[in-house]
Design goal:
Layout lengths: L2 E6 L3 H16 L3 E3 L7 E6 L4 H20 L4 E6 H6 L1 H6 L5 E3 L7 H9 L4 E3 L20 E5 L1 E2 L10 H5 L3 E2 L2 H13 L4 E5 L8 H4 L4 H11 L4 E4 L9 H9 L3 E6 L7 H7 L5 H14 L4 E8 L6 H14 L3 E6 L17 H24 L5 E10 L4 E5 L11 E3 L11 E10 L2 E6 L2
Parallel strand pairs: 1-2, 1-3, 3-4, 4-5, 5-6, 7-10, 10-11, 11-12, 12-13, 13-14, 17-19
Antiparallel strand pairs: 8-9, 15-16, 15-18, 16-17, 18-19
Length: 442
Amino acid sequence: MTKVAFISLGCSKNLVDTEVMMHNLHTSGFEVTFDTAEAEIIVVNTCGFIESAKTEAIENILDAAELKTYGKCRHLIATGCLVERYREEVFTELPELDAIVGVGSLDKIAEACEAVLRGEKYTSFEDKNKSKLGGGRVLTTLGHTAYLKIAEGCDNRCTYCAIPLIRGGLRSRPIEDIVEEARQLEMEGVRELNLIAQDTSRYGLDIYGEYSLARLVREITAKTEIPWIRLLYCYPDKITDELIDELRDNPRLVKYMDIPIQHISDSVLKRMNRHGDRALIESVIEKLRREVPGIVLRTTAMVGFPGETEADFEELCEFVKRTRFERFGAFTYSPEEDTAAYSMDGQIDEQVKQDRYDCLMATQLTVTEDISSEKIGEELEVLVDGYDTVAEIYYGRSYADAPDVDGKVYVRAPKGRYSSGEFIRVTVTEALDYDLIAEPSV
């Protein structure tokens, strides 16, 4: 049986695609291995969102190609966003590849593997706007937590973003399809379900004619007993009162929301083609915190967008300092071909971008330190993720911590006391910037 290994790059949405491809290969008679050194075929599922992601993808392809010379690997396949965006250029620039598979052809991964085993070069780019959504998966996350992709593509058309070019327009999955996958994940032991899409708050508009995320959450809650359901990537202009009510009233929908704002200066938001101005963003944040006591808000912001002035940047820093987001990330603007912002006037020097990024993150660190220190003495419910044998300490997350992007809660307790996927009560004893140290509650 031919062994195939995957290298999955980029976001959690890409990870779900990798898991679907793994399942496809498993049911087609291939053996999926998590050890690239043991694989005869290596598949690199690439990201192409920004320049650093493209560089990472190319480096991983070249690293994997080394195993064709020094390891057991005989064939190398690339899939995902970078491949979809640059298509035949990838074959030309990376002759080490034996097959390329676009985002609309992920269900052809077994066909691609069979072709390369016959010594053939293989290419498939079917219509990304008509490709099958969902499917069986081989989970690569911790067994008790999983991502559930509820839609593909995006219609927002932000001027800096290439995702609509790569992934196509919004395509929501039917509620019954998503609920069935949630039920399957629950049977596999999942206790935390993280709902994802390019814009989860727009979910359902294309097939139901209205924003339907709250309805979807109610259906998942009714048809499963998964304790934690988490919302990621909710755009502030589409957060409805119905969704806020659901977040307030549904005890299994954790009081956490990721609302990417990207900026707060009205002039920058307008050039970004973001749907909503500063007043709207502030109104949504105020309503969420008023209606949902204890809510944890996560956001991201971009610095160095074309035309961003020092005054715009200072406005962003002051807003972040005053708003006190519990969770925050930032990145520098990356000019992407075929996007409207690529040819805009006012492109900003890379060093200036980096300086602004460093300054913004330093501002947030002060906020984070204050928020974390306020947790000392507080009792938390923690979902155990595992045990660190080197540090001899358990680690997990509270409702305030999404997997992969937020901090952890470290719990001092004897090895063997807890199991991964178990919910425990702890009391915070120390704060370490983004992480907390705790002891089991008496």
